[in-house]
Amino acid sequence: MQLAKLCDGGEAVFAQVLDAAARLARGGMEAAPRHHAEVPWQSELARADQDLSRIEARLSGPEAPRRISFCLDGPAGTGKSAWARHLAHRMGLQVVEKRASDLMSKWVGESEQNIARAFAEARAKDAMLIFDEADSLLADRRSAERSWEVSQVNEMLTWMESHPLPFVCTTNFVEKLDPATQRRFTFRIRFDFLSEAQLPLAWAAHFTSPAPAGLWSLDRLAAGDFANVARRMRALGENDPQAILQELSREMEAKQGSARPIGFGR
Fold first, then answer.
1. Range in 23-27, 89-93, 146-150, 179-183 with the lowest mean pLDDT
2. N vs C: which end of the chain shows fewer Cβ within 10 Å?
3. Which domain holds residue 205?
């Protein structure tokens, strides 16, 4: 707080100074706005390895614990962040959502300050804190090449240990997380691509034409892929089922990784 004393303004001025420094680090630009999916949360399009509805029902009760945490991993577009926001709504909480890019800085020590401020903001608002791209903030320290990479992870782990409110970390690369994160999460939930039974549901949620037979051969699609293709088709004024199917195929082919794992189901 020495800087705040020099400014003769206390914590309010200190926060303003840090905000100005953060903008300076971004070249004077404000942080990028959050983008939330146009389609509301649809439980029938979720494919997770735990019972999400049971978790929602328990945590939305009046006696539910508040000191609780989640690691949500899985491919992009599978609904991780959307479910976290939905859970916050069920719990009657506001949401404070941060990308790794919102917090990481080239200036020594500033990433740690930004992390601390994110947790403080969530406490001040009595909000659920959501970290997207958490693998960038919690990367395995054994692979660190610079001291700040270790101190950044240490800062995250310290706050995760003591934070009194719900927080969520989402990642597409759970294998990159530091091993010490394991005990910091109350729940670790895997989200996966849509099952065969969910494919026609996702189609019906976005398109008015009947689903073509070839849809069932696409085994690596997420709900977000359907939303993305639907936006593209609206922009093109296209509603032909075969044209839509071709675009969905392109979305799938652009993905990395193997096909749907055998035996995973709901």
1. 23-27
2. N
3. 199-253
